[in-house]
Amino acid sequence: MIKAEHLSRSYGEFTAVDDVSFHIDRGEVVGLLGHNGAGKSTIMKMLTGYLEPTQGSIHIDGLQVGLETQAIQAKIGYLPENCPVWPDMTVIDYLEYQAMLHGVVAPLRSRAVAAAIRCTALREKATAPIQTLSRGYRQRVGVAQALLHQPDIIILDEPTNGLDPTQILQMRQLIKELAKTATVIISTHIMQEVQAVCERVLIMRRGQLVVDARMDQLQTHQGLSLCLDRDATTALRQIDGIASLQQRPSNDGRWYCNIDSATELAPTIANAVCQAGFQLYALEPRKRDLETVFAEVNREVAHG
What we know:
Layout: E1 2-11, E2 14-24, E3 29-33, H1 40-47, E4 55-60, E5 63-64, H2 69-73, E6 76-79, H3 91-101, H4 106-119, H5 135-147, E7 153-157, H6 165-178, E8 183-188, H7 191-197, E9 200-205, E10 208-214, H8 215-220, E11 222-228, H9 233-237, E12 244-249, E13 255-260, H10 266-275, E14 280-287, H11 290-303
Parallel strand pairs: 3-8, 3-9, 6-7, 7-8
Antiparallel strand pairs: 1-2, 1-4, 4-5, 9-10, 11-13, 11-14, 12-13
Family: Belongs to the ABC transporter superfamily.
Pfam families: ABC_tran (PF00005)
Protein name: Multidrug ABC transporter ATP-binding protein
C-alpha cells in the first residue's frame, strides 16, 4: 500500500532523513519511533506530500507522491503535530469548513461531520468554540478533521503530545477504533504509545531507519547477556549457533556482550570463554523488548 524507497531530505548541509526505505501493507498499525529530531515528522510530511524528498520516491496504491499528490491526499487523513485550528470557530463550523477543503461534496458534508464527531466523541462539544476546549479535546478535533473524507490511511504526528494521563488513555482507545477500518501510522518519541497500539515499529536514529520489526517478534526474541573482563569477540564468533553479538566496554573496565542466540547455548558459551582464559562475571538470559531495543540503538547517540 505504501512503498518508500531511499528517501532522503536535506536542509542545506543538514540531512534530516538519510536513505530510508520501508513498505507498509493495508491494515497495519505502525509506530514511527525516535527521539525528537530523529526525522519522524519529516517522513510524515513527505508521506503526505507536504514536503518533497531530496532523493527517493514514495508510492501509495501505485500513485507516486509528487506527481499525483492530489489523488494521494484524498486517500490520507493527516493530524500534524500541533494541528492548527481556528480558535474562534465552533467545533462543528470548523469541521464543516475542513470537509469542504477535503473535497466532501455539499450534500454529504453534514453526514461526514456528524460521523467524525461521533467517532471522536465530540458530540457534547460540537457547538463550543475551539478556544474553550482542553488540549485533549482539541487533539480530538484534529483527529476528526482527518477523518472527514473517510481516508484509507490515517497519519498521526505525536497524537498524545501534551495530553494528561486520562486524555492519553482516551486517545489510545480512539486510535484502536480507527485501526479497525484504516491503515494507521503514528509518529511518537514515547515508547509506551507504540507498545499500547501498534503492531509494528520503525525506529529512527539521526535520520536513519535502524529497526523495522513486528512487536510480537520483539517480545519473543531471546538472547544472552554476558559480562567479561575484556573483548571476547574472536572467541565467541567461533561458537556455532551465535547469530550476532554486540559488545561494549564499561567505565568499570568490564565488557558487556549481548548475544542473539538460544539460551540453550549458555553452557557452551560459558565453557568456551573460560577455557579461552576470560574472566566470566555474569551470564544470564535476556528478553529484548521495545525498551531494550530502543536503548541499544540509541546508545551510540548517548555516548557519541
